[in-house]
Amino acid sequence: xxxxxxxxxxxxxxxxxxxxxxxxxxxxxxxxxxxxxxxxxxxxxxxxxxxxxxxxxxxxxxxxxxxxxxxxxxxxxxxxxxxxxxxxxxxxxxxxxxxxxxxxxxxxxxxxxxxxxxxxxxxxxxxxxxxxxxxxxxxxxxxxxxxxxxxxxxxxxxxxxxxxxxxxxxxxxxxxxxxxxxxxxxxxxxxxxxxxxxxxxxxxxxxxxxxxxxxxxxxxxxxxxxxxxxxxxxxxxxxxxxxx
Length: 244
Description:
By secondary structure, this protein is α/β, with parallel strands linked by helices. It has four helices and seven strands; from the N terminus they run αβαβββββαβα. Helix content is 34%, strand content 23%.
């Protein structure tokens, strides 16, 4: 018969550590699952963008009529005539393009016979390295035939700087429309594909990012790998406690 040596204390089960491992494991698995969900969303987005790039532009008025009835028109290519857009007043929206800081010029395009009285047009990107801007002449009503992509405006967050008259940081369509004196703005932004100022090359139309990263599968595998490693370390720790 063998008896335990009373001089050697019996190790208790590490309940606190186990609970910490369970919580950390659940968080890591949750992050991995969230990245897989993001992967599915990103693949659908990329497929939609690829289809958009080959899709013919539709007249904007019927598309806006569908929006007014509750339809979805995000990433829809449209064409329209914009009187005076080349020399229209604008507000400047802070933006990054290819790692370079700058602004996107936002102007209003008047709509006749549409469900909305106007639509805000993102005319393109201007680098902060340039102080010049295209001319403004509100009396000029030369009609510009424009092709662009309708996009839902990005919502800001609590970290977004406050908009000012000199520079905007979020596409607050109602406030932008008020600043530009644009009546009844449509709830989407028109991202111009064609140049609103062909003679001013510094204004670069940029409706869709040239390269949208899709590394969500890599991120998911990283989180799942960390969860597996955590379990391995925990199991090894329990084994050492058992044999020591």
